[in-house]
Amino acid sequence: MKGIVFKSIFLFILLALSTSIFSEKTIYSIKNDSIKLSLSADNMFKIESKNSIIDFIDEMNFFIAGFEVSSKSIMIQKNDKTSEEIKIVKNCVRNQEHIIITERYILKPETRGIIQICEIENKTEKTLKDSIRFITRYSSVIPDLIQSKNGDALYNLIQYYDSAILILPDSAIKKSVIKTDYGIIYYDLPELLPGEKMALRNTIYVGRSSSELQEIIYTKAKLPFERVSGKVFLENSNLKTVGNIPVMAYEEDEKRLISICYSDENGEYGFMLPDDSYSIKVDREPYKLVSKNGGDMTISMPSENEFIWYPFLTDMTDETVILNFKLLMPSKAVADVFDSDGNKLSSTTSEKTRNLHHIEINGLKPGEEYSYIVRSLDSMSDSAVSESCSFRTIPKDIDKFAFVNHSDTQLFYNRQKDKSDLIMGEDILFVTHSGDLTENGPDEEMWKYHFDSHRDIYESFPVYPSLGNHERNSPIYYDAFDLPDDGGGDFNERWYAFEVGDTGFIVLDSNILTVKNLNDQQTEWLKFKLNEFKDKCFTIVYYHHPFWTNNNSIPRTLTENEKEWRELFEQFGVDLVMNGHIHAYEHFSRNGIEYITTGGGGAKLDNETGPEFYPWTVKTILGYYHYALIEIDTEKRELKVTVKAFQKMTEPLCEECYTEEFRILDEFTINR
Length: 672
Fold this sequence. Notes:
mainly beta, about 675 residues, 9-stranded antiparallel beta sheet, 43 strands, globular, 8-stranded mixed beta sheet
């Protein structure tokens, strides 16, 4: 679950931490009168100031290409009576060579900035060149604004709603690039000779808006700037001001966004802009600029807020569940929870004014029926209010349950909706998805399409997805789903695990084939989790690309992970592997493990197969939209898979070319 717990530590602490990616997160924090910085053992950040909370920086550290961290220690200490710092010492190895990286994060009482000093000591006999990197990665949010240069001044400015962060890298850093939409890598650092040390200094500032931080940039670069301010009024409201409205500043040609800020509770906004031509306006949906008088602007906005993504469930336990949803207009929100008799049990408020919310509901009882209603807390429009939706928590010590697996939903809305209607009739606890939820992961409209078509099941049964190739590892995926913490990779959610009773579930990302370090991390984590689950009654693994397919229109060997992963699956006794990617149903049985591909969840279906089949093939069936019902009884030590088809395709690539046909495509039982 997202979020970081703080501890205030004011005395010297020194802990030697294993760099195992499976170690428990330990939190360290330092603070002065303006800022509080919290850091976990795996470099997860949270920066808190008086006026804003910067909770979208995941990682901020130096690394050397080709080296891996073998040991790490973290300490908090007072440098003097006024200065406090977090110090991280990492020993990095490659073969028999090693280097030492020391990162220091310093807070002084007179500053609202954080000073990051990195010392790199080359203990090898080779020159380090073109290999030193400093990376900053934001967490699972998509920033409103990212800037990286003003003249010769290199910086990175990130704005998200009511918070902003400014990174001023060391002058030795000459270049930065944005990687895969949610990370910044700084490089072109000087070479480092054998036995040499190098110190780099970055400064990090926080604030409510990018405009106030831009003053720091202009001042340091000695560039002229001017203060521009005004108010935002709501149309037809007797000059009533409105807050939380994004105001944009563009270059005069209105092609390049140069700054953004949000109006405060009094409708006031303010910029620090270069002393040059610029244009200020409100032009972000759903707000419309009606008129402008100097710096004051009058806008129109919808009279009612609404859900872009209707509330859906993730990460359920016997006592908690996460409610996820996205609103048309930013606001706070509240979730009211009721027992099975309709008595109100709790109201949980999301305190941040956001479009996207993840509300954790606590204090539930195992195996109980509940209902919930979510509503936005709007001051200038009518609230969005959900219908009453019901769910059942996971019973404690559960030994009998069922869930649905499906995959490759992607494209055809009506086929997905028909499938969802049928799944609602199943007696299940949750839903798993083996990837390719949407046709195009970076397209937010495609996600609305997905959540709309699966609304009925997702609002009542928590969903546990895996990444497919069509997600393209988009930040929107991580934005949408608040998943179990027990994982790794991007935002700690690229791969993860969870447990239900005496059954362990492992969710992998089969897309990271060519990223060796990341793939090695995932495989090491997989080995760790399989060992942890080895005494469970059942272990189920799912990911997108199957090891094999009899489809002759795509490569028969789909993943480079087969040798490593299959060996681990067999070593630790995995029972069932669930995949997608192939838009058909396939079943393979090899060395005591059952492998199923359930790619008929709503995408266009495949229509070619053979002529040669793998000898361990059980079934390959084309042309049916389908899902798999998995029923588990750990008392009987029995796992039953029933694959249910509901429509038969009559013409490829045609959404409405089908006939109703309900049939069992496959049925088998695994006994332990």
